[in-house]
Every structure is written in structure tokens, then in C-alpha cells.
Amino acid sequence: MKNEISIMVELQHFWDNVLKCDSETERCRKSIKTWDTRLKEISLKVSTLESEIKALKMNLKKNELDLDEIDSKIKKVEERKNQLKSEREIEAQNNELIVLNESKEKLEGVVLDLLEKLETSEDKLVELKTQLSESEIQTKTDIEALNKKITDNQKESESFKNKFNELLISLDPQIRSRFSKLISSKDGVAIAHLNGEICSRCNFQIPSSITLSASTGRSIETCTNCGRFIY
Ligand SMILES: [Zn+2]
After folding, report:
1. Which pTM value belongs to this model?
2. Ligand 1: centre distance to CA 20 (Å)
3. Which residue range(s) make up the domain with 43?
4. 147 in a domain, yes or no?
5. Ligand 1 centre from 163 Cα, in Å?
6. Which end of the chain is more exposed for a tag (fewer CB within 10 A), N or C?
7. Is 223 helix (H, G, I), strand (E, B) or coil?
8. Domain count, the chain
9. Ligand 1 centre and the CA of 201: distance in Å?
């Protein structure tokens, strides 16, 4: 009986290592995902800003063309004014000039505003592109390291699994089937040591008669609460 217990303890040790390797692999996979997401976010920011700049440039061009048009209108009105004789006609042209100049001033304000926005956006784009290329290098290095870790962990997990399976055969068939069922449960623990009369896994107080027979190694006992083997 003692032999079965020590086999189970060793099996549990192998299985703990399998679980440890697998959770490390999972952790690495999550990190890779985080890196990828971060990179995609910066990429998206760059392309969003690029389209904003494109729109700003188009808007700027349109306003500059409008400004050119007003300028040539002003020029024409002024030429016409010089050829006029009657005061009434001159006054009408002057009024038109006032309106045209007001529009010109407004447009110049808009153009200046757009130029300023464009400059800020272009600076920001340079900054973001630097950040993106730095992140790309960093991400590549980190993901390579994480992938190597995953491969190593998978190999280690596989090797512990093999050791586990090899040893499992030597367990008494009846115990083996129960042990296998317990080990593939959610937390992967099939055997727990006793703290006095308490199951160290579920903290349940087990009747003395059972703990006594478990601790003397007379028979193989299980926790009356969680059903795990105890020793
Ligand atoms: Zn228990």
C-alpha cells in the first residue's frame, strides 16, 4: 500500500509540472496577443492621422483657390473703378470692394488656421511613425523570445506527461482509474497530504479512524469530503 501512495505522490509531482508548464505557455500566448494588439493600435492611429492630413490638405487647397478667386475679383473691380466717372458708380464699386475684402480676410484666417493644424498633425505623424517602428522592432524581439519560451515549455510539459503516463501503468488498475479521473478534474490534484486530521486540499476534518489507517499505511484512504486520496 505504501508503494501505491509513493507512486501517486510522484505522479502528482509530474502532473503539477505539466500544469505549471501549460499555464506558463498560456501566459506567453497572452503576452504575444497583448503585444500584437498594442502594435495594431499604433498602426491604426498612424493611418487615421494620415487620412486626417489628407483631408486637411484638400480643404486647404480648396480655400486657397477661393482666395485666388477673390483676389482676381478684387483686381477686376479696382480696374473697373478707375474707368468710372460718376460718383454713384464709384460708390457702388467701393461697396463691392468692402464686401470682397471682408470675405478675403475671413478666408485668410481659415487658411492660416488650416496651415497651423496641418503643421501640428504632421509633427504628430512623425512622432507616431517613430513610435510605430520602435514598437515593431521591440515586438518582434519579444514575440521571438516568447515563442521560444512556448516551445521550451511545451517540450517540458510533454516530457513530464510521458513520465506521468509511464508511471501511471504501475498503479493498481482500480486505483489508477480513480486517480486518472481526479487528475483530469479542474484543479488537477488527485492526492492530498493530511495536516493532522485535516485534508490539505479541501480543509475538511476527516474521521480519526480513516486518518489513522491512512497514516499508518494500512490501507489507501480518500478524503470523505473531496474524494482525493490522502496520505
Ligand atoms: Zn479533501
Report:
1. 0.78
2. 22
3. 23-158
4. yes
5. 26
6. N
7. coil
8. 1
9. 5
Q: Rounded to the nearest whole angstrom, what is the distance from the C-alpha of residue 37 to the centroid of ligand 1?
A: 42
**Residue 106 falls within a domain, yes or no?**
yes
CA of 215 relative to ligand 1 center, distance in Å: 15
Per-residue pLDDT of the chain (231 residues; tens, 9 = 90+): 558 999 999 999 999 999 999 999 999 999 999 999 999 999 999 999 999 999 999 999 999 999 999 999 999 999 988 888 888 888 999 999 999 999 999 999 999 999 999 999 999 999 999 999 999 999 999 999 999 999 999 999 999 999 999 999 999 999 999 999 999 997 999 999 999 999 999 999 999 999 999 988 788 999 999 999 999
**Cα dihedral 211/212/213/216 (nearest 10):** 120
Centre of ligand 1 from the C-alpha of residue 169, in Å: 25
Q: CB neighbours of 73 closer than 8 A, spacing ≥ 6?
A: 100
Q: Tell me, in angstroms, the distance from the centre of ligand 1 to residue 226's CA.
A: 4
> Do the strands 198-199 and 194-195 form a parallel or antiparallel pair, or are they unpaired?
antiparallel
- Residue 187 CA to ligand 1 centre (angstroms): 13
CATH of the domain at 149: 1.10.287.1490
Task: Using the mean position of ligand 1's atoms as its centre, give its distance from the Cα of residue 193 in Å.
Answer: 9
CA-nearest of 9, 4, 23 to 189 is: 9
